[in-house]
Amino acid sequence: MVEISADAAVVGGGLGGVAAALALLRAGRTVVLTEEHDWLGGQLTSQAVPPDEHSWVERFGVTASYRALREGIRRYYRDHYPLTERARAQREFNPGAGHVSRLCHEPRVAVAVIEAMLAPYRGSGRLRVLQPYRPVGAEVDGDRVTSVRLAHRDTAEQVVLRAPYVLDATETGELLPLTGTEYVTGFEAQSETGEPSAPAEAQPLNMQAVSVCFAIDHVDGDHTIDRPASYDFWRAYEPPFWGDKLLSWRCPNPRTLAIMERSFTPNPDDHPQLVEADQRISAGDANLWTFRRIAARRNFTEGAYASDITLVNWPMIDYLEGPVIDVPDAARHLEAARELSRSVFYWLQTEAPRADGGTGFPGLRLRGDVTGGADGLAQAAYIRESRRIRALCTVTEQDLSLAIRGDKGAVSYTDSVGVGMYRIDLHPSTGGDNYIDVACSPFEIPLGALIPRRMTNLLAAGKNIGTTHITNGAYRLHPVEWNAGEAAGALAAFCLDQATTPHAVREKETLLADFQQRLTRDGVELRWPDVTGY
């Protein structure tokens, strides 16, 4: 079996994994980065989710390298796309003019920018990317991971990675059970966390819904797909708290839980430069077409795009029938989630109510060429909730809830390694819970959340950090995952340089100060200015 060695093994090539690898590489270290899907970038690319970001993202509140990613995406459009002069001149150019983000864009553009950010290190030989590989085993000596075994997704060929530091940046914390690292899943009990929104008893299999996203446009002709095999099941499916069938325009408002009706108008003749994407003002989901639109045709020269392209990550594609972590039938649930998304698309084409009183939009096309999925959908399911390490520090709801913290702001951690901001946004869950949506204060990322209580050389570098089921809802979004990964990579590099351990860095004031100074030097913000959450 082939063995590969490096200073650090970063397992998982999502946003946290890419950021971790870049931090290690900037510090002069050698890295093996692995990813099981065809694209690096995780939720931004293979899962096809436009970036969910806070209201101040254009000014502060993200790391310098995440800002470089965002600026690279805009520059890629200006360099390669036929933009109108007005769009080209817009400093905060939003390619899709979507309401969910100030930077709604096609996933493939982010792939190109991520690859460009990594390219010099591949060329120098300090970075090796193994793709598509997934972790299938590990060797552990006491509290230390000695190797990770990977299998090729398509051929089952296996390789072994050996490195002084192993970073778990997988979407579901795959290395945690493989290495025997203590972790938690689902809802913790209120007696453990003290969280107001937690249940009385732990519910380890009660997790946020996964979603299989897809891109669509609307053009002349009939593009109706074959009727999905399970369409009748999903057509009749009605969650008890939904207010209607899942396949309808009606569903709960995440913030109020009142039943609301959304609209759907393909290709509205709106002005993309007038869209204000700010979730303080509005969630932006009233019109589903513009909610997560990733290409607004009016941003491009006449005739370049026959239609807008919108990304379907809507309430009706949330899969509630079962979790996909730590259950024997995970593969069945993942395929059922894909079948739900196909059924939603077929419903849109054939039965969805139209404003003119008719039904169905046969002109809708599935744009698998945009998402890269062989079946027309995203390559991977959007995983909102991972396994989470039993960490030295676990962030709880009362640390950042605006209702609890008020004008004090979120808890400030002595060992902060970054910042983030998003409402605690929990989608309906596999345990039958409705939305949980809690206003937040701008928060910090504690170093202790990246470090397992026991393992000495394994670090969490994604959505598997020390949060709870509830606070994961705020820490799971794009810039926070990137910051967590970047801090984990920087920590591994710092420990190698100083011949120390992650636990020691957190415990010793001088080491912690030196590490935080390095983060600040590299453009990682550790504190917020005086701003109020939402």
From TrEMBL:
Pfam families: FAD_oxidored. One of its GO terms (molecular function) is L-aspartate oxidase activity. One of its GO terms (biological process) is NAD+ biosynthetic process. It comes from the Bacteria. InterPro entries: FAD/NAD-bd_sf (IPR036188), NadB (IPR005288). PANTHER family: L-ASPARTATE OXIDASE (PTHR42716), SLL0471 PROTEIN (PTHR42716:SF1). This is FAD-dependent oxidoreductase.
